[in-house]
Amino acid sequence: MLDRFNRKIHYLRISVTDRCNLRCHYCMPENDPCLLRHEDILRFEEIQQVVAVAVPLGIDKIRLTGGEPLVRKDIVELVSMISEVPGVKDIAMTTNGVLLDRFAHDLARAGLKRVNISLDTVDARKFRTITRGGELQKVFDGIRAAKGAGLHPVKINCVVKEGPEESEAKAVQAYGRKEGLEVRFIPRMDLGTGHFGVVSGGTGGDCSQCNRLRLTSDGKVKPCLFSDLAYDIRSLGIQRAMEMALGAKPEKGTVNKQNLFHNIGG
Ligand code: SAM
Ligand code: SF4
Asked: Distances from the Cα of 56 to the Cαs of 85, 89, 239, in angstroms?
């Protein structure tokens, strides 16, 4: 499907939960993250239905994100349900990697093609600080498991404050080179002030090249990360919500005062 600015929209990012087993300081408040009520979170059947409606409209690429997608109960089952929808060419996941060691093989068997793993530092102490308590070794174990399961290519998402030249980023780049992983640097963004930038080595952040819609874990189709526009599939119906989001997709992102990264999915 083409939007008003002739961009081909074929990519749907689905946030499957707003919950997370880490608390990265740029993404989620430490206490009281204002989580959604369980009954507001989309059931697997609803997510599968969204995909089934989206594919004939032109979506062929799905990414599962969150929150942390691997804390969603029975996530492997969801991957198989999505891969059963005819016309889905690519299913990917963005994860912090902490639980990948446990799930990588089952996810691959269920139809997941590849993963992006978030890693901002290869220093265990700094990792604990950034994530407010995370254990770096678990991410390394997850990366190894993803490679072993053939979730290829494994890409690393590294959030940077200044740019790829800062020392943490350089160390992540060196680790990536050693392990044969592609590293993408994501400038730290602020939804509320509209501060965003282009992802180096990736596709995000360049509005003229944007090819995506988003689905929040409580069923809102969002045309843009940096926008308050949202169309509720439960009240509008899936097809109408998707068409309205497509029709309203802004040329450029501005601000999003409704969401934080953990409840829209970065
Ligand atoms: N929990 C998973 C993870 O961390 O990969 C998936 C969800 S997370 C919200 C998706 C991506 O958004 C991660 O790569 C994360 O680094 C990025 N992200 C979160 N907050 C961000 C911010 N303020 N600026 C830029 N990227 C951010
Ligand atoms: Fe959790 Fe990912 Fe946000 Fe970190 S970036 S708090 S791992 S959702």
From this structure: 11, 13, 10
List b or e across 63-76, with b for residues whose CB sees 16 or more CB atoms inside 10 angstroms. Answer: bbbbbbbbbbeebb
In the chain the first and final C-alpha atoms are separated, in Å, by: 23
CATH class of 11-263: alpha beta
* CA–centroid distance, residue 28 to ligand 2 (Å): 7
Number of H helices, E strands in the chain: 9, 9
For ligand 2, the distance from its centroid to the CA atom of residue 84, given in whole angstroms, is 28
Threshold 0.90, pTM exceeds = yes
- Cβ(120) – ligand 1 distance below 6 Å: no
Residues 95/101/104/106 CA torsion (nearest 10 deg): -130
110 alpha carbon – ligand 2 mean position (Å): 24
Ligand 1 touching residue 262 (CB < 6 A) = yes
Q: Which ligand is nearest to the CA of 204?
A: 1
Run means of pLDDT, 10 residues per run, the chain, 266 residues:
96 97 94 88 98 98 97 98 98 98 98 98 98 98 98 96 89 97 94 81 79 97 95 98 97 90 81
Cα–Cα distances (Å) from 127 to 20, 118, 137, in that order, read: 16, 11, 10
Strand partners, 187: 160
**Domain extent listing, the chain:** 11-263
